Structures are given as structure tokens and as C-alpha cells.
Amino acid sequence: MTREQALAVDRAAPSNAEVLEACKAAYRQHVDAVDDTTTGSIATARNPANAQDVAASQSYDWTSKVAAPSLTRPLLQASDMTQARASVEKDGDFATFFVGIEANLDVFVGGFGGVGVGFGFPSGSAMWMAWGGIRISMNIDIAINVTAGIFLEPPEKVAGDFIGIELSCEPVAEGPSVGFGIHLSTDLSEIRGFTIAVGAELGLLPVNAAIEHGSIVTS
What we know:
Blueprint: H1 3-12, H2 16-29, H3 31-46, H4 51-59, H5 69-76, H6 82-91, E1 96-120, E2 126-151, E3 160-169, E4 176-184, E5 191-203, E6 207-218
């Protein structure tokens, strides 16, 4: 999605208050799966035993648009994600488990994008995924994160436009950050999925909130 397309989506989109209420309702429907994926992702990203796998994902040349399940599958299958995998399976609504990296640059209105591999859940089939769009933020923010996500659609159907909200917290200046995002259809009628980002973030405030308008592509 180009910046001009993203701005056009923003002008036609629901209000920020409507987006927030829809995101809160989506979270309440899947609280256990989302919470366990969040805590599992944080533990996986920060566990020294996974440092080599995290570093490999961050250094991979994602511009090749070639799925790299050999790099991302170890993070998905890490012992720290055991409860997350069980909770997502118990929820029953999710069809894709995603692992990748994301970068964003916010100067009140900025861009974001990421790449990674979506795994059909629980089948484990892999598909390359990428996304990008525009963020309307309360903060000036630069971030590079390891990202995990769960989507209700299978990998081949995840592609498409979305609107949502992301909240990120950076407890220590120039230290680790945790971001939590909810993706909805552009009319807010359907839940697309949830994303969790853990990594090093450089921001001016300890908490950053952003409304996001973007699009996912698969290959």
C-alpha cells in the first residue's frame, strides 16, 4: 500500500473511538489465546537460549521474498511458546500462527512494514507474508521488533487490507519494548488477527499508541 492509498483509507475509515471499541471487543473474545501468545512471545524473544534463532531471523534477507521456515519455525516451536500453542488450539478459531520481524517509523504520521512466515495451524504448512501501511501515532517512534501473530484465516487467505490499533510499552529508555496489535477488517465487522512485537525500540515516551491502516500480502 502506498502512502497516498493509506491516507485515502484513513479518510474513509471509522473514527478512532470506533476502532478502539471494536478492538476491545475482539480482545475479549480471544483473551486466553492472545494473552498466552503475548507472554510466550516475550519469553521466547528474551530467553538467551533463543538468541541465535532471534538473531538469524533479524539478519535474514527478507527482500528475497522466499519463505524461511527453517529460521522461524524454531521460534514458533520454542518451549516458551508451549502454552501459547495450546491456548490457540483450544480457542479453535485461529488458522495461522505467524513469526517475523517488523520495523516502523512514526513522526505522528509514519510508515510501518514487516515480513515473515505464516504457518498453517495446526498443520504447520508455511507461507511467506509481508505487510505495510501507515500509522497515526501519539509519539515519535522508531522500532525494530521480533513479531508473532495469530490470524483467524489460513495463510493463503490472510492477505488483504486491515485497520487496527497497536499499543507499545518501553519500560526502560532505549531498552526492550513490547507491542500489542489487533487487526480488523476495514469496516470493523470481522477480526483478522492479533500481533505481538518484542524488541529494541527507541522512542520519546514510555507508551506509544497508534491507529494502523495497512495491507498484508502473501506469496
